[in-house]
Specification:
heterodimer, A: alpha+beta, Ubiquitin-like (UB roll), FAD/NAD(P)-binding domain, seven-stranded mixed β-sheet, six-stranded mixed β-sheet, 23 helices, elongated, B: alpha+beta, five-stranded antiparallel β-sheet, 30% strand
Chain lengths: 981, 197
């Protein structure tokens, strides 16, 4: 185990009393609590931490947070995760991580040979090469070579994810100086306030610097703020939480990475806020010059963070390359930590006097640039060049700090669909106009002076609370030392002879300046095209450090101002988010809702195979007995129904109670056939159309009283029908006096069917007369069965004598068990959906989703009898008439008997003229083995089908054409004598 | 357990779905000494009977199951003109759950998209909303001392809701949808699709 030779003896925001052991690429190291994996590796002197995505160039750590563009790791064991920025992995005991690329090792990566063929694999090479014989031949290898982690093979074994919904008045993103003062001001006014921050501790950029607030160390000031916030009951503070999406109507999605609950892995908050304050700070950008990706090249602010916050030394002798003032205080902190500064290379003609004073004795080379870095797996020197003379000079160093300026973190603001504008003074895009109730503050708004940031935070917090109706509470502005205003001269690329080759604009995706120029040459000059052609900005870092450099490169090459080019669209997530955190608890059995009847457990215990059968209902498909095949089971169940006695659970059928003085009018206008002449105690099968004349649903409606009906619908369409009726009543007939109440689960039913159904029920204890004379087809009777109050309907879906026994659901299981107790000796057989399907196909009964495919009307299905000639109007009548007034071929319901009687065909298979490969003339809607006919039978919708009965149709399957005779669409008991008995 | 709550599936209640004008409903309930609440989406409690105002001309009456016969008789013999109101017993349709304890609000936040803060969802609030994306009636638990909610869902979803509530707590129930183990690779299953009937 190596020692922490780059760790300072004191300082830093780490707990030196808690040593943490971890492993990186198989080597064991030590760090402290409070370290990230990046800071701990730097402390151990590790500089080579990655190989680049395409060229497998050696890479090190460049940043200190989610902006990290160079080094990504894959976590192992129970922490298993896909690519994560090395800078965001919190160190914990036993952590095992490995770099995502580099084989067989980082130091000796065989794939670094790609560097020899960079000219052959520029941006977009895969659009032009690897075409023969087929791109997919090469794709797996290319993907393996690319530097991405593997997806974990299994879910975490400990803990679960959670997703929750939350609301507040004011949501503040970012707990830096602006965020803290905003939150305090809003919270003091009484507003429900949430403060979200992605760091392990609040403070933002203050944690990395040595500023003073109110003459105290910033850590003391931060603690005083957070202590007060934590004492208020109207405040929720979320630390180590990343706000990664800003959606419509002020919905912000936040994922808490380390929730307090032990059993929780991560928690996602979907927060709806009345006002959002974006205090997300700013991100430093790199500079573009040759070999700007070498290990040892780091962002200046990152070096400052490592030195001050983690007490580690990223190097011993450094050069600083900058185009703005912010790098100078970094130099001061580095010197205080013991890093020698060889030189400050300032591309401007001259920094301000304040900066010169700050730099002290450090050599400042103004009007100079860094043309390149030297070294292989670590920087060993930089090549600097005067802008005037062009004379190069080499400066030995092991660390190059770069600062290309600061980009306000506008990602969430842009996601909210608000607009941005380019600011010349800052050389950056800043927030322009908000379209949702949000406001940026602090560095996120382009303000970099600490005193002003603190004051703005208070102002914005007060404004947000006031907009929510809370009274303003005065908050004093903390005092800070004054600082010189931020000054920058943009430098989008260094102009030297070496620049284009190996001058990276997007370090993660290995996108060079050459690639940008190539894209423009090839006509992909629009910024969104440049992004996609080069993949610049499409990596995990989402171009945080280099995106604007790409815009600058395009501007330079195209001679267009940056403001006219704009940025690409910022999309969520802002940082990598685990899929589990997005899904929350939606997994396994809880992924989708499911519904049970009172008999569900009985069905499972009896060996039923259960699956969803419409509207989330879990229903028995079939009840296989030992050794039976699927077809044997279905045949047995269907045969039992046709020859003896069966029962099925029909509880999920939709049911509605409809009553009121206008109930009959409603029923008549909903259905195509007449209901107003229905007698009390009887039912009628009816069909419902949509306004455009398509079949919506079918079912039996029973008249319970003068203005009182019980409507039944199909299982899957119950809710659709309910909405259809409510829409009609509320929009078309608001003055009608009628109420509709869903009662689907108030009543459950056991449907007893088969030729022996009546005889069986006569043995059941009941006051209902089941005889044919007293209980005709379509009648309803109320009474008791085995002491349970029941409503019994004589309806049939199977085509056999059938009694649907409805009881209140609390008694349903008792009834069901009693029926089996009495019926089993008689051969009572439970049947499932599969047998029901066979039985209804034999009868030619329609089924939603099969014959009712959204295009058919009742005439197509041979049901002209159901389209009332007497009624003046009903929903869909006019649409059907208009459609049929134009003579055009219609698909009509027919039966099909395959020439080979044993041949079943696939439901949905197309019918084409003579089986040729051309436009279909219909399709098979159902195909089953008929127990009644002992052969296969099918139903189909076929163009002009009814006029082609007796002819041959051709079913086109893959590799086969199956001929079939066209018949009437009923294969059993055409006169329905058995059903009506 | 992740949260400090007690989740209970409650016993069957006597529940009536009432529709009609406020005047007619008031008249209907007069002899029972039940007065409809003044504010929409609130509950009025009379002993162990609750009346929820949950929509325009729409109320839910909830009472112990022991009151069912008495209420049925009362409604059948009321003076209201036939056709002016809709009175439908839906006792078997609704399964009530109670969620009580210090973390009841946290649990509700996981399963419901509604803002149930006391400033927006006061002690007598009741509304239809969605719990785990299924339609549900949500109310404060007026019969509990301290923090608590009650949810009522269609009975057919009760097992799903129970499953999800226990998952929130980190204590998932054993759930087996499939009954007999599904033969995942059985080609005979290929033709299976939802058979609507």
């Amino acid at each position: 185990m190596t020692s922490q030779l780059r760790r300072l003896a004191s300082g830093g925001d780490i707990d030196r009393s808690k040593i943490i052991r971890y492993e990186f690429n198989g080597t064991r190291y030590q760090g402290y609590e409070g370290d990230t994996l990046a800071s701990a590796l730097i402390a151990n002197g590790v500089s080579l931490t990655a190989r680049s995505f395409k060229y497998h160039r050696p890479r090190g750590i460049m940043g200190a947070g989610s902006e990290e563009p160079a080094s990504f790791v894959e976590l192992l064991d129970d922490d298993a995760s896909s690519s994560q920025p090395i800078t965001t992995v919190l160190l914990r005991e036993g952590l095992r991580a490995k770099s995502v690329s580099g084989w067989p090792s980082l130091k000796y990566d065989l794939l670094s040979i790609n560097q020899l063929i960079t000219r052959c694999i520029p941006a977009g090479f895969y659009y032009k090469t690897f075409k023969w014989p087929n791109w997919h031949f090469f794709e797996p290898s290319i993907r393996r070579i690319a530097g991405l982690a593997n997806a974990p093979k299994q879910a975490p074994t400990k803990g679960q994810y959670e997703s929750r919904n939350w609301f507040c008045d004011v949501l503040i993103i970012g707990a830096g100086p602006a965020g803290l003062t905003s939150a305090l001001t809003a919270a003091r006014s009484g507003a429900r306030t949430i403060l979200v921050d992605d760091g392990t501790n609040p403070g933002g950029g203050l944690l990395n610097r040595t500023d003073k607030v109110n003459d105290k160390n910033t850590s003391d000031w931060i603690t005083s703020i957070t202590d007060e916030l934590d004492s208020l009951s109207n405040v929720l503070r979320l630390q180590e939480s990343i706000a990664w999406a800003y959606r419509e109507q002020n919905l912000v999605v936040v994922t808490e990475r380390q929730p307090a609950a032990e059993l929780l892995l991560q928690r996602t908050w979907r927060i709806r806020a009345r006002q959002v304050i974006l205090a997300c700070g700013a991100i430093e950008r790199t500079l573009v010059f040759a070999n700007n990706d070498r290990p040892g090249v780091m962002l200046a602010s990152a070096v400052q963070a490592y030195v001050n916050r983690y007490a580690v030394l990223p190097g011993k002798r450094a050069v600083i390359f900058t185009n703005n003032d912010s790098a100078y205080p970094v130099a001061v902190d580095m010197i205080a930590a013991g890093i020698e500064i060889a030189s400050i290379i300032d591309s401007r003609t001259g920094p301000s006097n304040a900066m010169r004073e700050l730099a002290g004795d450090i050599e400042i080379l103004t009007n100079h640039i860094v043309a390149s870095t030297l070294g292989r797996q670590r920087v060993r020197a930089v090549v600097v060049q005067s802008n005037e003379t062009g004379n190069p000079r080499s400066i030995p160093c092991d660390l190059l700090c770069v600062s290309g300026g600061w980009n306000p973190t506008i990602h969430l603001f842009s996601q909210s669909r608000s607009t941005l504008r380019y600011n010349d003074d800052l050389a950056a895009f800043i927030p322009h106009e908000a379209v949702q109730a949000c406001e940026c503050v602090g560095a996120a708004a382009g303000e970099f002076e600490l005193g002003q940031i603190l004051a703005d935070g208070i102002k914005v917090g007060a404004r947000a609370a006031s907009d929510c109706g809370f009274k303003r509470v005065e908050t004093s502005v903390p005092s800070t030392a004054s600082s010189a205003p931020y000054s920058i001269e943009p430098l989008w690329q260094v102009n030297s002879s070496e620049t284009s080759a190996n001058a990276f604009v997007d370090i993660q995706n290995d996108v060079t300046l050459n690639d940008v120029h190539l894209a423009i040459r090839e006509g992909f000059g629009a910024i969104e095209h440049v992004k996609r052609y080069t993949t610049g900005g499409m990596g995990i870092d989402q171009g945080k450090t280099g995106g604007i450099n790409i815009v600058g490169a395009v501007a330079n090459r195209s001679n267009v101002a940056l403001r006219d080019i704009g940025t690409t669209t910022y999309r969520s997530p802002f940082a990598p988010i685990e899929f589990g955190a997005i899904a929350g608890g939606r997994e396994n059995s809880a992924l989708l809702p499911y519904r049970h009847t009172p008999m569900t457990q009985w069905n499972k215990d009896f060996g039923a195979t259960m699956y969803e059968s419409g509207a989330r209902w879990r229903r028995p498909g079939y009840y296989a007995k030992n050794g039976e095949t699927f077809q044997e089971t279905v045949n047995r169940e269907a045969l039992a129904t046709r020859t003896n006695l069966a029962v099925y659970d029909g509880s999920p059928l939709g049911k509605f109670d409809i009553c009121g003085p206008d109930a009959t009018k409603l029923i008549d206008i909903l259905y195509t056939n007449l209901f107003s002449n229905l007698k009390v105690g009887t039912g009628r099968y009816g069909m419902m159309l949509t306004e455009d004349g398509r079949i919506l649903d079918d079912g039996v409606t029973v008249k319970l009283g003068e203005n009182h009906y019980l409507m039944s619908t199909s299982t899957a369409n119950a809710e659709v029908v309910h909405r259809h009726i409510q829409h009609f009543l509320q929009i078309e007939r608001p003055k009608w006096n009628v109420w509709i109440t869903p009662i689907t689960t108030q009543w459950s039913n056991a449907t007893v069917c088969g030729p022996n159904a009546r005889e069986f029920l006569s043995r059941v204890e009941s006051d209902i007369d089941f005889s044919a004379d007293e209980f005709p087809f379509m009648a309803m009777r109320e009474g008791t069965i085995e002491g349970i109050e029941a409503r019994v309907f004589r309806v049939s879906f199977t085509g056999e004598l059938s009694f649907e026994i409805n009881v209140q659901s609390r008694f349903a299981l008792k009834l069901w068990e009693r029926l089996f107790e009495l019926g089993e000796p008689l051969g009572l057989t439970p049947i499932g959906s599969e047998a029901n399907h066979v039985l209804r196909v034999e009868k030619g009964f329609l089924s939603l989703g099969h014959e009712v495919d959204g295009t058919a009307d009742p005439y197509d299905l041979g049901m002209s009898w159901i389209m009332s000639k007497k009624k003046v109007d009903y929903i869909g009548k006019r649409a059907v008439e208009i459609r049929r007034s134009v003579e055009s071929p219609r698909r009509e319901l027919v039966g099909l008997l395959t020439d080979d009687p044993s041949r079943l065909v696939t439901e949905g298979a197309p019918l084409t003229p003579s089986g040729r490969l051309e436009a279909s003339e219909g399709f098979v809607t159902a195909s089953v083995w008929s127990v009644a006919s002992s052969r296969s039978v099918a139903l189909a919708l076929l163009t002009n089908g009814r006029s082609r009965i007796g002819q041959t149709a051709h079913i086109r399957l893959k590799g086969e054409i199956v001929p079939a005779t066209i018949t009437q669409p009923c294969f059993y008991d055409a006169d329905s004598l058995r059903m009506k008995n | 357990m992740i949260y400090c709550v007690n989740i209970e599936r409650l016993e069957l209640f006597c529940v009536f779905d009432l529709k009609g004008s406020r005047t007619d409903i008031t008249t209907l309930l007069t002899k029972l000494k039940i007065v409809p609440p003044e504010t929409p989406n609130t509950a009025a409690i009379f002993g162990n009977v609750a009346l929820y105002w949950i929509g325009p001309q729409h109320w839910i009456l909830r009472a112990p199951q022991t009151e069912a016969d008495a209420l049925t008789v009362e409604f059948q013999t009321s003076d209201i003109k036939e056709g002016n109101t809709s009175i439908v017993e839906v006792s078997d349709m609704l399964q009530f759950f109670s969620i009580r304890g210090a973390d009841a609000s946290e649990v509700i936040a996981v399963c419901c998209t509604l803002d149930t803060h006391s400033t927006t969802f006061p002690h007598n609030a009741v509304t239809y909303t969605e719990i785990f994306e299924t339609k549900a009636l949500l109310s404060r638990d007026a019969f509990a001392d301290g923090e608590g909610f009650q949810i009522a869902v269609d009975r057919s979803y009760a097992d799903f809701i129970d499953d999800n509530l226990h998952r929130i707590l980190g204590a998932p129930l054993e759930v087996n949808h499939a009954g007999r183990a599904a033969e995942a690779n059985n080609p005979e299953h290929d033709n299976q699709k939802h058979r609507d009937h």
